[in-house]
Amino acid sequence: MSTTGTGPTVTDVVAELERRYPPVWAEEWDRVGLVLGEPSAPVRRVLCVVDVVPETVAEALDADVDMIVAHHPLLLRGVSSVAPTTYKGRIVHQLIRAGVALYVAHTNADVAAPGVSDALAARFGLTDLRPLRPAAPGSPAYGPGRGFGRVGELPSPMTLAELTRHAAAVLPATAWGVRAAGDPGRTVRTLAVSGGSGDAFLGDATAAGADALLTADLRHHPAGEHLAADGAALLDAAHWATERPWLDDLATLLRETTGVETLVSDLDTDPWTVHASTPAVDDRSPDREG
Questions:
Q1: End-to-end alpha-carbon separation of the chain, Å?
Q2: Judging by DSSP bridges, how do beta strands 178-181 and 187-197 pair with one another?
Q3: Strand pairing of 127-134 and 147-159?
Q4: Which DSSP helix (H) or strand (E) runs through 151?
Q5: What stretches in the chain show pLDDT beneath 70?
Q6: Which of 59, 65, 96, 123 has its CB 3.0 to 4.6 Å from that of 47, i.e. a possible disulfide?
Q7: CA 259 vs CA 6, 21, 170, 223, 262: distances in Å
């Protein structure tokens, strides 16, 4: 901790974050760590968010925070300008003018134990947790319990239909909700979960003996081919909803290790804002003649 006697600084908060989520655990393509902020600047209040978007930036400024800790990188892909005439440039300028630091913990938080998927697993009361895809031996993240996703046992078996309704109730509410693929009557005892995009883990779920996988951003062809090969049933939730639970753990970590005040953003940053189910045949408008 800081020895200045004035409370924690950006450097202090970063040190605690990197103790729990070392940047070397991130995927090679990822961009994590301190994005903006003077290392010596004092930090009284931190806002934890999934996405750095205009709405969460406005929330941070309204709450007079000194730092944002985000899951998704603002600058994941290369940029040649942060001019205020650009979308991301405006955010950068806003935060710098307001003296708000920005830190990102992404795939390094995904593989941590506890990490993003542990918080998701807790929403379902899963026990006997193990990684869905363990960190590879020899990789920086290799170690007990670390890796992408989690697999565990439900408190009691549910059908896929029951589990889908349960997931919609225990996850943060979104317009997207939760959809499922597979036999609605299939019994689910062992559930795999992975916060964020989970297309890459379909085979891992089957290999792990999971009856179902809950994740986000599933696509038509990979999902269809997976099910045709007798793979685990699939539940597809909103991306934001599968990662929002981790923010509570993140806020607790920062509060307990640095003493800063922590706020958690509940702003739904999922891009999908309207959902309509196909009406029953009897409810449809009659075909017009002529």
A1: 77
A2: unpaired
A3: antiparallel
A4: strand 147-159
A5: 1-5, 282-290
A6: 65
A7: 12, 18, 29, 44, 9
Residue 47, beta-bridge partner list: 68, 263
What is the CA angle 26-152-23, rounded to 5?
A: 10
Please give the Cα distance from 233 to 183 (Å, whole number): 8
| Fold: same for 10-106+243-264 and 109-242 | yes
**CB–CB of 43/260 below 8 Å?**
yes
pLDDT of residue 3: 40
| Joined tokens for residue 72 | 């998704």
Spatial distance between the Cα atoms of 208 and 194, rounded to a whole number of angstroms? 13
CA atoms of 140 and 163, how far apart (whole Å): 35
CATH architecture for segment(s) 10-106+243-264 = 3-Layer(aba) Sandwich (3.40)
Alpha-helix runs per DSSP H in the chain: 10-20, 54-62, 87-98, 107-111, 116-123, 160-170, 202-207, 220-228, 239-258
Amino acid at 22: P
Please name the fold of domain 109-242: 3.40.1390
Here the tokens at position 152 are: 């565990």
Q: What is the DSSP letter of 25?
A: G
- Helix (H) / strand (E) element for 132: namely strand 127-134
Domain ranges within the chain, ordered by starting residue: 10-106+243-264, 109-242
3-state secondary structure of 148: strand
pLDDT digits (tens, 9 = 90+) for 208-237: 999 999 999 999 999 999 999 999 999 999
